[in-house]
Description:
Blueprint: H1 11-21, E1 29-30, H2 32-39, H3 43-55, E2 59-61, E3 68-70, H4 72-82, H5 87-102, E4 105-112, E5 115-122, E6 137-139, H6 144-152, H7 175-188, E7 191-194, E8 201-209, E9 215-224, H8 230-248
Antiparallel strand pairs: 1-3, 2-3, 4-5, 4-9, 5-6, 7-8, 8-9
Helix pairs in contact: 1-2, 1-3, 2-3, 5-8, 6-7
Amino acid sequence: MESRSAPPGTQAALRAIRLLKAFSEQHPEQTLVELQLAAKLSKTTAHRLLGALESEGLVERNAGTGDYRLGPGALALGAVARSGGGLQERLRPVLEALAAESGETVTLEVETGGEMLIVEEVAGGHLISASANVGTRWPMHATSTGKILLASAPRLRSGLGFPLRAYTPNTITTESAMDEELSRTQEQGFAVVIGELEEGYSAVAVPVHDPFGTLAGAVSIGGPSGRLTRKVMNSLGEMLRDSVQNLSR
């Protein structure tokens, strides 16, 4: 059987796609030579195409080793693909309602590459409120969205390398403390962070499932710790949990 040739004028695009597909969970970072061999390209062609992909944020360089890895642009595209089936569209009215009711910023985030990626956001009504751009990535262990996914999907915990990085004095870094935190999170049905990613910032999150019951991401409400006290966070967590559960039903 003859192999089907590529449409005219698409060779460069196909070669760039082969470079992107060369990355995997087993090989998330690779050298120029490794990518060249995997994509069956000359070193010059591979270097030129990687430069183009890097300019668009689809790949980036490790500052320490110079190796290539998928960039934030590729992660954002992957998040959009993972949230297919109208997840963002389906949740947008809920996010807007939660932002209006709480007055705080509400985000929809998904896990990708061991980090949380913001795929949708609705700003709060307060003059001083949390603000982050769609496409921003955060560490799982220091965010409410990351914690709720870690509590909901134990398989994700295997990717944590202890001791974890401390972003503030409040960041949970040890395995025993994280296990205790995730157990508490499972019991209450929502995750809370108070000054763990950034001092003065607090957030609460609940998991989101797709129409088939598969864990798809998390929704969070976040803002200044001065307004979001522990008591307020618990109240918001219950409201958030009930709102998303009603949506699932």
